[in-house]
Specification:
By secondary structure, this protein is mostly helical. It is 69% helix and 0% strand. InterPro entries: DUF6170 (IPR046168). Keywords: Membrane, Transmembrane, Transmembrane helix.
């Protein structure tokens, strides 16, 4: 499992912003059941953390919310990469086609 976009061989020649666009294109190519499954997996990973936020009140809630904002992409990016691996070649081709215009 890849934890960041740097480790994906197919995306090595691209800049970070281009890699993010390619992943976004690949996510748009996912079929409905795959999108639902991805959403459920994200929810299953994040739900315990957000439920634990219910125990904080007032200003004590601020640090956990900041931590949640930082952890969200760190926890969900590997899932998105795993789900989009099969669509990467199509997404790269579409990205190249868009950039030729």
């Amino acid at each position: 499992m890849h934890f960041n976009l740097r480790n994906i061989e197919q995306l090595k020649p691209y800049k970070l912003r281009d890699k993010q666009q390619i992943i976004a294109i690949a996510l748009s190519h996912l079929e409905a059941p795959e999108k639902v499954l991805l959403g459920c997996c994200k929810l299953a990973i994040l739900m315990p953390f957000f439920i634990s936020l219910a125990y904080f009140e007032g200003w004590y809630l601020l640090p956990p919310l900041l931590l949640a904002g930082i952890l969200y992409p760190l926890l969900t990016t590997p899932l998105e990469i795993a789900f989009t691996k099969s669509k990467l070649s199509d997404a790269i081709a579409e990205f190249e086609k868009q950039n030729q215009k």
